[in-house]
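Here is one chain, start to finish.
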Amino acid sequence: MIIKESAENYLEAILMLKNKNGYVRSIDVAHHLNFTKPSVSVAMKSFREEGYVTVDTDGNITLTDKGMEIAQKIYERHQVIAKALIALGVDEETAYDDSCKIEHDLSDITFQKIKEYFLSHTNENI
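Its structure:
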């Protein structure tokens, strides 16, 4: 399944906010991604129609299994790449900023090799 980078960022943000706050609303996503509320509302409508999220009557956003699969994949990539960059001596802020750029374009094969190498050379969990 191929979706656009911006959609991956939205889904990852929803996962991160849910983990942090226990709930997610459009305004939370807008603040997290520094987007306007109307932009997020348009995106959420599209994600609902495509089956990536559900939104309850109180405006709480929940990832569907389909949305969760993508969000977890991108989140894992973000964490692994950032931690690998930090292990190479990159400062934390730069590592996380750069990992966000890299995570979307890296092939699955290359990512797996980075992950395997990182896990075999550190004692960290991801």
